[in-house]
Amino acid sequence: MIENGYLFAAGMSTILLALCHSILGETMIFGKLRKRMAKNKENPGPFLSDAKRAILWASWHLSSILGICIAFPLLAFSSSEGLPDSESFYFLINCLSLGMLGSSLLVATATKGRHPGWIVLLLIAILLQASIFS
Asked: Domain span at residue 62?
């Protein structure tokens, strides 16, 4: 049973964001990059080396994995009877909220607001803060 809908919504939003990030990144960025690099094997030009492409790919999916690792405790806390009521719990939620807010600002600034990920990250930060006061 869901005891805190804000934590549940934050956890589900984080999972959705992570899945969209990996799936869309794989199809819209890395799939096209692999095709372009395959066409230009003899003269790769400004394309990334295999090693740099590999670490970029790993870093891309690492952020998705970490997002899911953040989401699962939020979902577990959302359904806990008698949510943790301690300074450590509030510290954790505040840290996660600030991390999401900072990530939102980073994405919004880097893309001049054109990438919709900043909106989802901001929503998650707001939901986390709301979970404390519910």
From this structure: 5-133
Report CA 61 to chain centroid distance, whole Å. 10
- Distance (Å, whole) CA 66 – CA 28: 21
What is the distance of C-alpha 44 from the center of its chain? 31
Spatial distance between the Cα atoms of 15 and 22, rounded to a whole number of angstroms: 11
Sequence letter at residue 20: C
For residue 134, what is the DSSP state?
-
Residue 78 reports pLDDT greater than 90: yes
* Number of domains present in the structure of the chain: 1
DSSP 115: S
Q: What is the pLDDT of residues 97-116, one digit of tens each?
A: 999 999 999 999 999 999 99
3-state secondary structure of 102: helix
